[in-house]
Amino acid sequence: MSERRELLIDAFNVMFAHARFGPLLRRDLETARTEFLRFVQQNRPADATRVYVVFDAHRDRGPSSDTGRQNTDYSASVHVVYARETADVWIQRRIREHADPSQLTVVTSDNAIIATVRAHGSRLLRVSQFLQLPRRRVAPGTGKSADKPEHVSRREIEEWERLFGERRDDD
Q: Which of 122, 59, 116, 46 is CA-nearest to residue 86?
């Protein structure tokens, strides 16, 4: 059995690239963050991936610690991290210190993070790719898929295999 995969999201990098969240960030940081977290929760990968949404703590009014403040109010599978240093530094440290960096997929377009991803054998998902992934709908408040397709298309399976490097044996 393989280790649980992790998806690390460079939150502000994604939000500023998004047509809705970018402008909202400039007007109302808290609302933008809340809506983005809801977006991630509703559109996270359907597999067992643990998702970390990493924000810069210097934009947060709350206290921070050396490792960042984690908030898991949204779901057991979506962890919110307010990085004391910067999201970039937190993500790069997570990659360097992970027992198996190949189990990490990082969503960013930041060149410094991309260099760390490549140097340690993690997977990269550029922001533009992440925003174009086929999404699953989640029933509000349940964390469960509202869409129950009869089957997943071959193209969808191949896309997830390409992104997460895992093949299903039941095909």
A: 59
Question: How many angstroms from the chain centroid is the CA of residue 93?
Answer: 16
Note the helical H segments in 28-147: 29-43, 87-97, 111-120, 127-132
Written as one letter, the residue type at 146 is: A
In the structure encoding, which two tokens stand for residue 117, read together? 């991803």
Dihedral of alpha carbons 48, 51, 39, 92, sign: negative
Burial 115-151, CB ≥16 within 10 A → b, else e:
ebbeebebbbbebeebbeeeebebeeeeeeeeeeeee
CATH class of 6-164: alpha beta
8-state DSSP, 35: H
- pLDDT tens figures, 71-124: 544 555 688 888 888 899 999 999 999 999 999 999 999 999 999 999 999 999
Question: What gap in Å lies between CA 48 and CA 17, rounded to an integer?
Answer: 26
pLDDT tens digit sequence for 51-71: 999 998 765 555 545 445 555
